[in-house]
């Protein structure tokens, strides 16, 4: 996780990963339900309301770009999202 110089904001608000409240805490069962709009991803703290706004395309693009650099199976999704972003 990138280190940031912040003193007024809680650590959990600045992280790009999940922090459990207790040691050994399990992920919620909802986290493992695959979402069609997020192929290959687990949305740990996603909204349970079906009418909630979807993740911003910029967030998805950044996510798949980071994953594609480590695992080639994410490259196709990244390229598709990038192409969609360029059309806007």
Description:
The chain is mainly alpha-helical. It has a domain at 29-87. It is 33% helix and 0% strand. It has helices spanning 11-14, 57-68, 75-87. Helix 2 (57-68) packs antiparallel against helix 3. The protein is globular. The N and C termini lie far apart (30 Å). Residues 9-14 have low confidence and may be disordered.
Mean pLDDT: 78
Secondary-structure element order, N to C: HHH
Radius of gyration: 15 Å
Structural class: mainly alpha
Q: Counting H and I runs of at least 4 residues, what is the number of helices? A: 3
| First-to-last CA distance | 30 Å
What summary fits the major beta sheet?
A: none
Would you report the number of β strands? Answer: 0
Shape, principal axes of CA atoms: globular
Task: Please give the share of residues in helix.
Answer: 25-40%
Low-confidence stretches: 9-14
Short recap of the structure:
This protein has 88 residues and is mainly α. The protein has three helices and no strands.
Topology record:
Layout: H1 11-14, H2 57-68, H3 75-87
Based on the model shown, name its key terms.
mainly alpha, single chain, 88 residues
